[in-house]
Amino acid sequence: MADSSIEIGKRQAAYSAVDEYILPEHKVVGIGSGSTVVYVVERILQKPELKHIVYIPTSFQSKLLILEGGLQLGSLEQYPEIDVTIDGADEVDEKLNAIKGGGACQFQEKLVAEAAKKFVIVADYRKKSKVLGTNWVNGVPIEVVPMAYKSVLKSIENNLSVKPIKATLRMAINKAGPVVTDNGNFVIDAHFGPLTDPYLVHNQLKMLTGMYEIGLFLGMAEKAFFGEKDGSVEVWERK
After folding, report:
1. Looking at 20, 42, 94, 109, which residue is catalytic?
2. Residue 109 is among the residues annotated as catalytic for this protein
3. What pLDDT, on a 0 to 100 scale, did the predictor assign at position 1?
4. Distances, alpha carbon 161 to alpha carbons 140, 156, 183, in Å
5. Of 24, 47, 49, 106, which residue is 20 to 30 A from 18 by alpha carbon distance?
6. What pairs with residue 73 in β-bridges?
7. What secondary structure does DSSP assign to 144-202, as a single string?
8. Domains observed in the chain
9. Are 188 and 152 in contact (CB under 8 A)?
10. How far apart are CA 107 and CA 84, in angstroms?
11. What is the average pLDDT across 56-62?
């Protein structure tokens, strides 16, 4: 595949994050999901001094990247403490709050991010935003237990102080029926418009019975690397 300006930027952002954050003295590293993370693993494979590290995946996709690269695969059960996790995002605001879960991996992504001493985001410039919900209008991804999806949808529409513009069960594209996560759950995408108070939305969603996990990653990342259109990298640090 020929490199577009976006792909060049993604690669540079991923390479910069790996060079700064994954060090030879590290023992365990979390590998996120998404298109930019492909370049994270690509950079790791270029550095023999990182081959001894155990890598924890957040999805089937990242598990394959680790295995196909010949890296050491581990799990959170084996290694509950992670030195650093690098992951992508669907949208990132100026405080480094993020919406994640466009690829339906938000539960495992959050587990691996929270287990890490440092959490770093890599993305392209299109993911930058002043307020979450401005650029990413597909909605906040909400993983739900299948038998509860209708009751959760009803609660989202009727019982929250912040009303959604739209909330729908995510349907598969090349298969009849809903998207099923790696954990066997369904995904609801709830678009609230610009999230001026993402913590309020997160906390109210968390209270709903049948809720599994929410694709709002708040106050977690310490730095984000964005690949720009011209191939440069812009770095945001948490304020």
Report:
1. 109
2. yes
3. 42
4. 16, 9, 29
5. 106
6. 55
7. E-GGGHHHHHHHHHHS-SS--SEEEEPBPSSSSSB---TTS-EEEEEE-SS-S-HHHHH
8. 3-129+218-231 (3.40.50.1360), 140-213 (3.30.70.260)
9. yes
10. 17
11. 95
